[in-house]
Amino acid sequence: MPTVLRSGPFRFFFYAGDGNEPPHIHVARDKAVAKFWLDPVMLVTSEDFTRVDLSRLTKLVTEHRKTLLEAWNDYFHT
Question: How far is it, in rounded angstroms, from Cα 26 to Cα 19?
Fold first, then answer.
């Protein structure tokens, strides 16, 4: 479960078995988790994040999209 980025309390990561899906990133803080597609950036699922957190996360994923996609492509050799 490679961690790609940390921003404040948020950890951005993907699972080793995620390579069968389109590029995406998981985000966790405490017990809250979310999943975002990276191309285009779009929230897929969320559990226990507030709307304020999700808005902040959407901005963070959008700002770091290039880095997140590069990490995805490097890890999954796409």
Answer: 13
